[in-house]
Amino acid sequence: MKVTLGQLITALNELEKIRNERMNIAAAFKVLTIIKRYSPEKEAFSISMRKLLDEYAEKDGEGNPVTEGNGVKLLPDKAEVFKKEMDTLLSAKIKIIGDDLLTLSDLENFAVSPSFLEAVDFFIKREE
Question: Measured between alpha carbons, how far is 66 from 49 in angstroms, rounded to an integer?
Fold first, then answer.
């Protein structure tokens, strides 16, 4: 199965939220395996994002991107190009390896939101 890089980053961020919670050994192993397996993609995304911001963000006097609200202020004439490159980056396809998928029973001791389940859906094996 393939998912977009954007979907993968969202799922990994959600799994990071439960990484330090107590869970059974099998679930803990699966969560840790998933996070470690796909951390190179997350790191590559971070590097690419920094490069895009370095190129398209407004800079302060020290050369750092100018923040605006929760984000970064883009150069007005470069905002569309940034958006297009960001969309291309986030839509890159990543192959998900079917080993070590979580089951719903792995998550049964957690109070999770529907948005958590939506984000990690492709890492959950449907139980028969």
Answer: 15
Give the HSE-up count for residue 96: Cα atoms under 13 Å, Cβ half-sphere.
22
E-strand stretches of 12-128: 67-68, 71-72, 93-95, 102-103, 124-125
CA angle 10, 16, 20 (to 5 degrees): 165
Are the C-beta atoms of residues 102 and 10 closer than 8 Å to each other? no
Question: Tokens standing for 67?
Answer: 């923040």
CB 76 within 8 A of CB 46: no
Residue 126 pLDDT: 78
Report d(CA 95, CA 28) in Å as an integer: 22
Report the b/e string of 33-55 with b at 16+ CB within 10 A. Answer: ebeeebeeebeebeebeeebbee
Tokens 């089951």 — which residue?
103
The maximal CA–CA distance of the chain, rounded, in angstroms, is 59
What digits encode the pLDDT tens for the residues 75-124?
A: 999 999 999 999 999 999 999 987 778 988 888 888 888 999 999 999 99
